[in-house]
Design a protein that fits this description.
The protein is of the alpha+beta class and about 130 residues long. It has a domain at about 45-134: 60s Ribosomal Protein L30, Chain: A (2-Layer Sandwich). It has helices spanning about 50-65, 85-90, 90-100, and strands at about 5, 20-25, 25-30, 75-80, 110-115, 125-134. The strands form two sheets. The protein has a four-stranded mixed sheet, covered by helices on one side. A two-stranded antiparallel ribbon has the order 1-2. It is globular.
């Protein structure tokens, strides 16, 4: 059983690497706290957005597993970044990192540029919601 159904959104631009709308199946909802590139000691790992995305996405997968969920059960993901231009310039390299942690599963996604994140060294923070099917 899947955790969601991607909605037909004809009339909108073709989604690439995300879904415009997702309907979650009945089940238990998992709300993730913001995941940055923190290592187990709380230090930010990586100096580039790509390095930090890799660690943050791995942290999302780890948090989901801890909740009894999995990356393919994500229904929504908000990506906060302090450098939208670097994110946009890194799209080609971000694809393999996405697939490494989330496979070819694409939830509803938003990318938001922010002036700063809580940890000054962080360039990216991922906040997700997953549904564990009933």
């Amino acid at each position: 059983m899947t955790s969601h159904e991607i909605v037909n959104t004809s009339g909108l631009a073709k989604p690439v690497g995300f879904a415009h709308a997702v309907v979650a199946a009945p089940g238990r909802t998992v709300y993730l706290g913001g995941q940055t590139a923190q290592d187990p000691d709380g230090a930010i790992v990586g100096s580039t957005l790509l390095e930090q995305f890799d660690v943050a996405a791995g942290n999302v997968a780890t948090a989901l597993a801890g909740a009894g969920s999995a990356p393919d059960q994500l229904v929504s993901l908000i990506i906060y970044t302090t450098d939208v231009a670097e994110y946009r310039a890194s799209l080609r390299e971000l694809g393999p990192l996405w697939r490494k942690h989330f496979g070819r599963h694409y939830p509803a996604v938003a990318l938001l540029g922010v002036a700063a994140l809580f940890d000054e060294a962080a360039k990216i923070e991922l906040v997700g919601t997953a549904v564990i099917p009933a």
